[in-house]
Design a protein that fits this description.
By secondary structure, the chain is an all-alpha fold. The protein folds into 2 domains: about 15-240; about 245-275. The protein is about 75% helix and about 0% strand. It contains 6 helices and no strands. The chain has helices spanning about 20-30, 35-65, 75-120, 135-180, 195-240, 245-275. Helix 2 (about 35-65) packs antiparallel against helix 3, helix 2 packs antiparallel against helix 5 and helix 3 (about 75-120) packs parallel to helix 5. The radius of gyration is 35 Å and the shape is rod-shaped.
Amino acid sequence: MNENGTTADTKGSLMENEHVKELFGILQENGKDASGLSALINHVVGMEDFVVQAEHQISCMKAQLDEMKEIQDHPIRNALKKTIAALEAKVAEIKTQIAELKTNIVEGCKNTVAAFKETGTAVLDKLASFFRIKNCLQTIKNDTVKTVDRCDRDIAKIQNFSQEYHKAGRALKNMVRMLIGKEPIDTVKENGKLATALCAPYKAEKACMLGIRRQCDKMIAALNNLEKSAEAKRGEQADKPKKPTMMERLEAKKNEIKEREREAPTLDRTKKVQAEI
Protein backbone atom coordinates (compact mmCIF):
# COMPACT_ATOMS: atom_id res chain seq x y z
CA MET A 1 0.00 0.00 0.00
CA ASN A 2 1.41 3.36 -0.98
CA GLU A 3 0.80 6.86 0.37
CA ASN A 4 -2.10 7.38 -2.02
CA GLY A 5 -3.89 4.31 -0.68
CA THR A 6 -3.40 2.33 -3.90
CA THR A 7 -1.38 -0.75 -4.65
CA ALA A 8 0.91 -1.74 -7.50
CA ASP A 9 2.22 -5.09 -8.63
CA THR A 10 5.89 -5.21 -7.60
CA LYS A 11 6.54 -8.94 -7.88
CA GLY A 12 9.87 -9.67 -9.53
CA SER A 13 12.28 -7.10 -10.91
CA LEU A 14 11.33 -3.43 -10.92
CA MET A 15 12.85 -3.12 -14.38
CA GLU A 16 10.22 -5.52 -15.70
CA ASN A 17 7.33 -3.42 -14.40
CA GLU A 18 5.26 -1.87 -17.21
CA HIS A 19 5.14 1.62 -15.63
CA VAL A 20 8.88 1.66 -14.96
CA LYS A 21 9.67 0.55 -18.51
CA GLU A 22 7.28 3.13 -19.96
CA LEU A 23 8.91 5.97 -18.02
CA PHE A 24 12.39 4.88 -19.11
CA GLY A 25 11.16 4.86 -22.71
CA ILE A 26 9.72 8.38 -22.38
CA LEU A 27 12.94 9.71 -20.85
CA GLN A 28 14.98 8.18 -23.66
CA GLU A 29 12.69 9.44 -26.41
CA ASN A 30 12.82 12.99 -25.04
CA GLY A 31 16.58 13.07 -24.47
CA LYS A 32 16.28 13.22 -20.68
CA ASP A 33 18.82 11.83 -18.19
CA ALA A 34 17.56 8.54 -16.72
CA SER A 35 20.59 7.87 -14.49
CA GLY A 36 18.81 9.10 -11.35
CA LEU A 37 15.92 6.69 -11.85
CA SER A 38 18.36 3.89 -12.67
CA ALA A 39 20.24 4.57 -9.43
CA LEU A 40 17.07 4.29 -7.33
CA ILE A 41 16.16 0.97 -8.87
CA ASN A 42 19.70 -0.43 -8.64
CA HIS A 43 19.84 0.36 -4.92
CA VAL A 44 16.57 -1.50 -4.35
CA VAL A 45 18.08 -4.47 -6.18
CA GLY A 46 21.06 -4.17 -3.82
CA MET A 47 18.73 -4.39 -0.81
CA GLU A 48 17.08 -7.47 -2.23
CA ASP A 49 20.49 -9.09 -2.77
CA PHE A 50 21.35 -8.69 0.93
CA VAL A 51 18.02 -10.27 1.87
CA VAL A 52 18.75 -13.23 -0.41
CA GLN A 53 22.16 -13.63 1.22
CA ALA A 54 20.57 -13.61 4.68
CA GLU A 55 18.02 -16.25 3.62
CA HIS A 56 20.85 -18.43 2.27
CA GLN A 57 22.73 -18.11 5.57
CA ILE A 58 19.61 -19.06 7.50
CA SER A 59 19.34 -22.26 5.45
CA CYS A 60 23.02 -23.03 6.12
CA MET A 61 22.64 -22.42 9.86
CA LYS A 62 19.64 -24.75 10.03
CA ALA A 63 21.62 -27.46 8.25
CA GLN A 64 24.61 -26.96 10.56
CA LEU A 65 22.36 -27.13 13.62
CA ASP A 66 21.00 -30.48 12.47
CA GLU A 67 24.57 -31.75 12.05
CA MET A 68 25.70 -30.75 15.56
CA LYS A 69 25.00 -34.11 17.21
CA GLU A 70 26.66 -33.10 20.48
CA ILE A 71 23.83 -30.69 21.29
CA GLN A 72 20.84 -32.72 20.11
CA ASP A 73 19.46 -32.90 23.68
CA HIS A 74 21.14 -29.76 24.97
CA PRO A 75 19.19 -26.59 26.00
CA ILE A 76 21.49 -24.59 23.75
CA ARG A 77 19.85 -26.23 20.74
CA ASN A 78 16.51 -24.63 21.59
CA ALA A 79 18.26 -21.29 22.11
CA LEU A 80 19.83 -21.54 18.66
CA LYS A 81 16.54 -22.49 17.05
CA LYS A 82 14.83 -19.48 18.63
CA THR A 83 17.63 -17.16 17.51
CA ILE A 84 17.43 -18.41 13.92
CA ALA A 85 13.63 -18.10 13.99
CA ALA A 86 13.97 -14.48 15.19
CA LEU A 87 16.36 -13.80 12.30
CA GLU A 88 13.85 -15.29 9.85
CA ALA A 89 11.13 -13.01 11.24
CA LYS A 90 13.38 -9.96 10.89
CA VAL A 91 14.24 -10.83 7.29
CA ALA A 92 10.53 -11.27 6.53
CA GLU A 93 9.87 -7.83 8.06
CA ILE A 94 12.55 -6.13 5.98
CA LYS A 95 11.22 -7.85 2.85
CA THR A 96 7.81 -6.29 3.56
CA GLN A 97 9.41 -2.86 3.90
CA ILE A 98 11.29 -3.30 0.62
CA ALA A 99 8.07 -4.41 -1.10
CA GLU A 100 6.40 -1.18 0.10
CA LEU A 101 9.35 0.80 -1.20
CA LYS A 102 9.05 -0.88 -4.60
CA THR A 103 5.32 -0.14 -4.68
CA ASN A 104 5.99 3.55 -4.07
CA ILE A 105 8.61 3.65 -6.83
CA VAL A 106 6.21 2.03 -9.30
CA GLU A 107 3.51 4.53 -8.32
CA GLY A 108 6.01 7.36 -8.82
CA CYS A 109 6.74 6.11 -12.34
CA LYS A 110 3.04 5.68 -13.06
CA ASN A 111 2.20 9.21 -11.86
CA THR A 112 5.10 10.71 -13.83
CA VAL A 113 3.91 9.05 -17.03
CA ALA A 114 0.35 10.29 -16.43
CA ALA A 115 1.59 13.85 -15.80
CA PHE A 116 3.76 13.73 -18.94
CA LYS A 117 0.81 12.69 -21.08
CA GLU A 118 -1.26 15.50 -19.62
CA THR A 119 1.19 18.42 -19.50
CA GLY A 120 4.23 17.51 -21.59
CA THR A 121 7.99 17.21 -21.17
CA ALA A 122 8.32 19.82 -18.40
CA VAL A 123 7.39 17.20 -15.76
CA LEU A 124 10.38 15.07 -16.75
CA ASP A 125 12.68 17.64 -15.12
CA LYS A 126 10.83 17.18 -11.79
CA LEU A 127 11.14 13.41 -11.29
CA ALA A 128 12.01 13.64 -7.59
CA SER A 129 8.63 15.20 -6.79
CA PHE A 130 6.86 12.04 -7.96
CA PHE A 131 8.83 9.63 -5.75
CA ARG A 132 7.52 9.97 -2.20
CA ILE A 133 9.86 7.41 -0.70
CA LYS A 134 12.06 9.36 1.71
CA ASN A 135 9.90 8.53 4.74
CA CYS A 136 9.91 4.85 3.81
CA LEU A 137 13.70 4.92 3.35
CA GLN A 138 14.23 6.68 6.66
CA THR A 139 12.06 4.10 8.44
CA ILE A 140 14.08 1.23 6.97
CA LYS A 141 17.36 2.95 7.84
CA ASN A 142 16.30 3.65 11.45
CA ASP A 143 15.27 0.02 11.81
CA THR A 144 18.64 -1.21 10.55
CA VAL A 145 20.50 1.06 12.99
CA LYS A 146 18.56 -0.34 15.95
CA THR A 147 19.00 -3.91 14.75
CA VAL A 148 22.77 -3.57 14.27
CA ASP A 149 23.13 -2.12 17.78
CA ARG A 150 21.14 -5.01 19.24
CA CYS A 151 23.20 -7.58 17.33
CA ASP A 152 26.44 -6.02 18.61
CA ARG A 153 25.18 -6.22 22.20
CA ASP A 154 24.06 -9.84 21.87
CA ILE A 155 27.32 -10.91 20.18
CA ALA A 156 29.33 -9.20 22.94
CA LYS A 157 27.28 -10.99 25.64
CA ILE A 158 27.85 -14.39 24.05
CA GLN A 159 31.57 -13.79 23.59
CA ASN A 160 32.01 -12.51 27.15
CA PHE A 161 30.10 -15.45 28.58
CA SER A 162 32.19 -17.88 26.51
CA GLN A 163 35.45 -16.28 27.68
CA GLU A 164 34.38 -16.43 31.32
CA TYR A 165 33.34 -20.05 30.86
CA HIS A 166 36.75 -20.95 29.45
CA LYS A 167 38.52 -19.00 32.21
CA ALA A 168 36.60 -21.00 34.81
CA GLY A 169 37.50 -24.21 33.02
CA ARG A 170 41.16 -23.21 32.91
CA ALA A 171 41.13 -22.40 36.65
CA LEU A 172 39.70 -25.84 37.44
CA LYS A 173 42.26 -27.59 35.23
CA ASN A 174 45.11 -25.60 36.79
CA MET A 175 43.98 -26.61 40.25
CA VAL A 176 44.18 -30.27 39.25
CA ARG A 177 47.57 -29.75 37.57
CA MET A 178 48.98 -28.10 40.69
CA LEU A 179 47.77 -31.00 42.85
CA ILE A 180 49.65 -33.46 40.65
CA GLY A 181 52.74 -31.26 40.43
CA LYS A 182 52.35 -29.85 36.91
CA GLU A 183 52.77 -26.25 35.77
CA PRO A 184 49.54 -24.22 35.37
CA ILE A 185 48.27 -23.27 31.91
CA ASP A 186 48.44 -19.53 31.10
CA THR A 187 46.61 -19.41 27.79
CA VAL A 188 42.84 -19.00 27.59
CA LYS A 189 41.06 -21.20 25.10
CA GLU A 190 39.43 -19.27 22.27
CA ASN A 191 35.65 -19.20 21.96
CA GLY A 192 34.54 -22.63 20.87
CA LYS A 193 32.14 -24.13 18.39
CA LEU A 194 29.01 -23.42 20.42
CA ALA A 195 29.84 -19.74 20.90
CA THR A 196 30.50 -19.43 17.17
CA ALA A 197 27.17 -21.11 16.41
CA LEU A 198 25.34 -18.83 18.83
CA CYS A 199 26.89 -15.70 17.30
CA ALA A 200 26.29 -16.77 13.69
CA PRO A 201 22.61 -15.68 13.42
CA TYR A 202 23.40 -12.27 14.92
CA LYS A 203 26.38 -11.78 12.60
CA ALA A 204 24.26 -12.73 9.59
CA GLU A 205 21.50 -10.32 10.66
CA LYS A 206 24.04 -7.54 11.24
CA ALA A 207 25.63 -8.04 7.80
CA CYS A 208 22.21 -7.90 6.14
CA MET A 209 21.18 -4.74 8.01
CA LEU A 210 24.49 -2.96 7.34
CA GLY A 211 24.18 -3.68 3.62
CA ILE A 212 20.60 -2.43 3.49
CA ARG A 213 21.52 0.68 5.46
CA ARG A 214 24.22 1.54 2.89
CA GLN A 215 21.70 1.14 0.08
CA CYS A 216 19.27 3.44 1.94
CA ASP A 217 21.96 6.11 2.24
CA LYS A 218 22.72 5.80 -1.48
CA MET A 219 19.03 6.05 -2.39
CA ILE A 220 18.58 9.15 -0.26
CA ALA A 221 21.64 10.68 -1.95
CA ALA A 222 20.20 9.79 -5.38
CA LEU A 223 16.90 11.49 -4.47
CA ASN A 224 18.77 14.57 -3.27
CA ASN A 225 20.63 14.71 -6.59
CA LEU A 226 17.35 14.51 -8.49
CA GLU A 227 15.96 17.37 -6.40
CA LYS A 228 19.08 19.48 -7.00
CA SER A 229 18.85 18.79 -10.73
CA ALA A 230 15.21 19.95 -10.74
CA GLU A 231 16.17 23.13 -8.85
CA ALA A 232 18.95 23.82 -11.36
CA LYS A 233 16.49 23.42 -14.23
CA ARG A 234 14.10 25.86 -12.58
CA GLY A 235 16.96 28.33 -12.14
CA GLU A 236 17.90 28.06 -15.81
CA GLN A 237 14.32 28.65 -16.87
CA ALA A 238 14.03 31.66 -14.56
CA ASP A 239 17.13 33.23 -16.13
CA LYS A 240 15.81 32.84 -19.67
CA PRO A 241 13.81 35.81 -21.07
CA LYS A 242 10.13 35.12 -20.88
CA LYS A 243 8.47 34.49 -24.23
CA PRO A 244 5.42 36.68 -24.86
CA THR A 245 2.06 34.96 -24.88
CA MET A 246 -0.22 34.90 -27.92
CA MET A 247 -2.35 37.73 -26.47
CA GLU A 248 0.75 39.81 -25.76
CA ARG A 249 1.98 39.34 -29.33
CA LEU A 250 -1.44 40.38 -30.75
CA GLU A 251 -1.52 43.45 -28.54
CA ALA A 252 1.99 44.43 -29.67
CA LYS A 253 0.95 44.02 -33.31
CA LYS A 254 -2.10 46.26 -32.80
CA ASN A 255 0.05 48.95 -31.21
CA GLU A 256 2.49 48.74 -34.11
CA ILE A 257 -0.31 49.26 -36.65
CA LYS A 258 -1.72 52.22 -34.71
CA GLU A 259 1.73 53.80 -34.56
CA ARG A 260 2.09 53.49 -38.34
CA GLU A 261 -1.35 55.06 -38.87
CA ARG A 262 -0.40 58.03 -36.71
CA GLU A 263 2.81 58.53 -38.65
CA ALA A 264 1.12 58.26 -42.13
CA PRO A 265 -0.55 61.77 -42.27
CA THR A 266 2.69 63.43 -41.32
CA LEU A 267 4.51 61.67 -44.11
CA ASP A 268 1.77 62.62 -46.63
CA ARG A 269 1.94 66.33 -45.69
CA THR A 270 5.70 66.34 -46.01
CA LYS A 271 5.47 64.89 -49.55
CA LYS A 272 2.83 67.51 -50.56
CA VAL A 273 4.96 70.43 -49.37
CA GLN A 274 7.99 69.06 -51.17
CA ALA A 275 5.95 68.76 -54.39
CA GLU A 276 4.69 72.39 -54.17
CA ILE A 277 8.24 73.65 -53.74
